[in-house]
Amino acid sequence: MSLSVTDLTITVAGRTVVDSVSFAVDDGGRIGIIGESGSGKSMTALAVLGLLPDGATATGSIRLDGRELLGRPDRELARVRGSRIAMVFQEPRTALNPIRTIGRQIMEPVRIHERLGRAECRARALELAKLVALNDPEAMLSRYPHQLSGGQRQRVGIAMALAARPQVLIADEPTTALDVTIQAEILELFERVVTQLGTSLVFITHDLAVLKSIVETAIVLDHGRLAESGSVHDLLAHPTSAVTRRIVDAARATSWTRPEAT
């Protein structure tokens, strides 16, 4: 088992925002976390990374390959973040440093976690730029975030997350800020890179149509509680909770579907 979350409960200023949530993802596996705004999806992801905001506390268990992460000192968790578990954030514009080049930002996780030389870091950055299909990757490394489109910035965010070759990739609403056409391209990119690298994926979204295109099983959160879980097909076809029925009703059509195996 790659990542296992058991009875995770998060409180902020005495208010419970995540209540006894459990899920697991195998090595190379994929799971979705879906819910409406305020359901606790992002707080769950931040707890896994040890990045909860000040004033928030978490209990339960978060294990990576059997090793407990919850309650570990931040210095230890800093070695895990990026190298073992990495995250792609919802809004790439705010996730990137506006005064650093794209190449420098992709190289940083490699420099921190693998202590490679500058030439080796740049070679890895170029390799990643090609992996995420950035146009003219050599030139792209010298550009700044404001010179890129939203889709290009999200590709950079994915490259940064994959830079130190993490075991688990968490994607927190990575297509929400993008138009439908670019959404399809980013979903196809996720499908390709996690398959190619064998990375475990936790994909967070509010859109079941998007979720269906990238994972097969999911949990549904409602006001911090686990409302239901199962295959995405069953959640779409036979939702049992009121929140899942609302999400199904609101699901947007998407033209992208997982490519057939060859």
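Second entry:
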Amino acid sequence: MNYKEIVKDVLLTESKELEKSANSVSFDIENIIDLIIQSKGKLIVTGVGKSGLVGAKIAATLASTGTSSFFLHPTEAMHGDLGMISKDDIVLGISYSGESEELIQILPHLKRLNIPLISMAKSENSTLAKYSDYFINIAVEKEACPLDTAPTSSTTLTMAMGDALAVCLMKKRDFKKEDFASFHPGGSLGKKLFIKIADLLKKENLPIVSRETKLKDAIIVMSEGRVGSVIIVDENQKVIGILSDGDLRRALMKPNFSIDCNIEDIATMNPKTFDDENLLASDALQIIENYKIQLLVVTDKNKKLVGLLHIHDLIEAGIK
């Protein structure tokens, strides 16, 4: 049995169903987005079985991208949790058949409460669709399972449709990376999107020297500073140069090298600096990698030294 061919067939089958749906979008997405955006309440996702599992993921995606949302199981709703739905909320009901008994049972109660209903099902003639204010078609021609019965292509399409809905809402809200970060303050994702260089910047006991400093004295400052460089400033504390360990190694290779020379004779003058402390740490790491440097020199708008950020500080903070 060639399992690689089976994997390939499953992926191609599901991708074809996604492509078919993408080429035949006919539901009223503009009014659906406007309805959700203008709502003062939450978007509550509900469904049972595989549709419920997919619905829980859709609700999580919506909640993390700026749309207040949670998943409500229809059975729990019939046993008291219907009270979690307020008059300003909207319900997104998911059932591939459109006839899931547990979900159908709560529909009259939603109508009684005048709760707007968006549905995802395979047929506009289904009970769920007929109760709905807006219907999103998630019909597929072929499930990826060999019996053409287990929800595979259909759940993939439902998941993708939920993603499309979330992305439309993000675009409508002009949802930015910084907004996303505020919803993910913990873990590696939060570190990447939330931590700014101001949170990691070294501002005290900086390795600073003047342009007249002799190289032998600068080396001592470099060793004590433990960032592999010294920063050259003028009398107003403005950054005018940097001496890195790389500059020092290159100077050592020259035949006329003298440890008694002035630091500016071998340093990199007018180095690249950055004046935005609110720069995301992940962006700072990208800059460091692009410029092939190890140290980010941060100044104010007048080029006065504010602090230093070493690549090791980013790595230790878990920025990747």
